Structure formats: structure tokens, C-alpha cells
Amino acid sequence: MNVVYPVSRRRFFGGVATAVGYLSLKPHLRLWSQGAAPARRSQTTVAEYDAMAKLANNENPYGPPESVLKAMTDAFKYANRYGYPDGGIVDAIAKHHGVPPENVMLGAGSGEILSIACTALLQDDKKVVGVEPSYNVLYQNAAALKADQIKLPLLKDYRQDIPAMIRAVKHNYRDVGFVYLCNPNNPTGRTVSKQEVAQLLDGIPDDVPVLIDEAYHHFVEDPSYATSLPYVLQGRQVIIARTFSKISALAGMRLGYAVAPRELLQRMRPFGTGTINAIVKWGGVAALNDTASQAWVKKVNNELRSKTTAQLHAMGYETIPSECNFFMVHIRKPVQPVIEEFRKKGVLVGRPFPPMLEHLRVSIGTPEEMGRFMTAFREIFPAGKAASGAK
Ligand code: PLP
Question: Which of 93, 245, 246 to mutate to test the pocket of ligand 1 (most atoms within 8 A of CB)?
Fold first, then answer.
């Protein structure tokens, strides 16, 4: 695939370039020990990490577009200010979704929104209801609060079991703090249809909040899917979480938000830290306006996902139909050692997602990175062996 990068990486702002230069002068410097990717926990230098194909964290490999870089570069003069000037980010998000600003709450990434929702809504021994696997950071937040998690299994086709969710909520009514619906779901990439969302909201008591995590909304093509944002305008107890980390390539800059009814946000706001990066607020406004670059990322991502999954199918491996910037392939053997084998070949892939321990999650990187993934896959799973187990 011929890719014309819409962004000039050379025009990266000076401060960041200086920091990168500093790190490259210190090849012994070890990356911090936290983080989801196993490679980061091991002894990997920045230079080694840079050289790897990074298909582990569902990041956008192309970086922010020119318009966003310019907005952030111009905003650097506000690096010494805490909250203002902010580029009008809340108003821009509100306008983008056609809601009043009072229905918008910013977070340092949508991860902060999920964490705040847990703190605010799981008080007094309340439980969260969701599926497993799903975005497990949500459940980690709940666990840190010692809140119970009702994690329901996925259906055979890896979709979320909406009737089971409804039953679990009804069965535990009064004890349920909120329902977590990741749509599309991470790590499977599968969507919940608009009819199923309606079925869920109509099937549970009106006063049970539903947190709908739409982190991967922008990649979806499935016509049966729709954003659940209109429910907020209807005053339903729905919190929509969105992020600038994926389609807008601002993961490291930390910006996300919730759109929800005023009363729900009133419960959540006291737990917000207000520590939103001063620069990314301007980048976020520019990102909302740059629909052309979002369309480009979606197109390239989805084409590359189709191409890679077709190559795996040709080798006899099944993949789960994904609408995201990642997919899962069924490798028919334990995933943990395979992750390590990929790492040795310079390819970082997703962590294990219990109980799907024979599935590998692969983020969509650049065409070059996907080529490296396929080369490594062919080496780790030689053709003759693969065909024998094909279903
Ligand atoms: N929700 C889902 C489903 C995710 O996959 C992620 C990150 O990968 C997040 C939320 C958090 O993203 P961020 O905090 O970068 O906005």
C-alpha cells in the first residue's frame, strides 16, 4: 500500500525534539517500569523501543496532523498557566456534539474519566457490571476501590451478552453503581449494535447509569453501530467517554472527555483533578476541526486491517471481526510465550486478555510495521503447521 503521510514529522515542536535528543544521548537510560507493554517492563532502552514495531497499545502510528502540531506549538507560550487560556476546548466539544457545555467534562485522557466514574459511582459498596474481557483498566480502578465487579462472559462470537447484562443488573439492582459498556469493545474490536444499546437501556431500571466507552468510535464502519450520544440529550443516565488518544494521535498528551447529563457530571466533577495538559487543549480544538486527517487515518487503518487479516486467513488463522485500530487472531496456543517470541523479533504485540488466552491482540501500525508483523508471524507459525489446525 502506498501511504502519503499527511503530516510532516520534521516540524515537530522544538521542546519535544530537544527532549528526544537528550534521551538519544543517553543510550543506557532505561524506560520506566510501569505500563501495559511487557517490553517496557523489561530492560529496553529508548533506542531499542524506537526501533520496534509498536503494535501493543492501539496507538496511532502516524502522530498528530500538521494542524494539531501547529495549534500546540503556538500554545506553548501558555505552558506556564494552569487552566486558562484553554483554546475554548469545552465549548468546541459541546458544539461538536450539539450539547450545552455543562454536559461536558474534560479528563487527562478518557482513562481519567473512567477512573472518576468509578470513584464517584462505586461508593457505598456499589458494583460495576460489564463483560470480560473488556478494557481492564476500568476493572482495575474498581478493584482499587474494593468495589465488586460482575464480569460476564462474551458470547461465542465474542459479542457482548446484552440480555445477560440486563439480568445481572436487575438481579443486583440497588447494588449496581453503573454498567460499563465498551463500544466497540477492547480487546475484541466488536461493536454493540444501536438496537442492542437501546435494548440494554430500556431493559434496566432508569436510574442505573451506563458508562459507554467510545474510545474507538472513529474507526467504525458497521452500519448497525451508532454513537450513544443522543441518549445524553434525552436525559438518560448515560455517560459517553471519548478520547483524543486514538484517531487524533494524542495519547501521550492526555486528553479525553465525558458527555453526560448535568446531574451525573455533578457527582463526578468533585473527583476530577483538573490536571489537563495546557497545550493539548489547543491541540484538541484543532483535532476536532481536522476531519480530513481523521478520515485519512480511518481509511488507511481499516485498509491495512483488512489486508493483514486476509493474509492471516490465507494462512489458516481466524480473526475476530474488528471495527477498531486493532484485531485479535486466534493462535490456538497459549499467547504469553508467543508475545515474547514476537518481542525477540522486534515486534511488540498486545498483552494477554484473560480468559481469551489463545488470542493475540495486534494493533494496526504503519504498513511497514504490519509487514514486519507478518514476517514475524510466518516465522513463528510456519505454514505447514498452521494449515493442520485450521478451522
Ligand atoms: N477506553 C478504552 C477502551 C481504551 O482502549 C483506552 C486506551 O487504550 C482508554 C479508554 C483510555 O485511553 P486514554 O486515557 O488515552 O484516553
Answer: 245
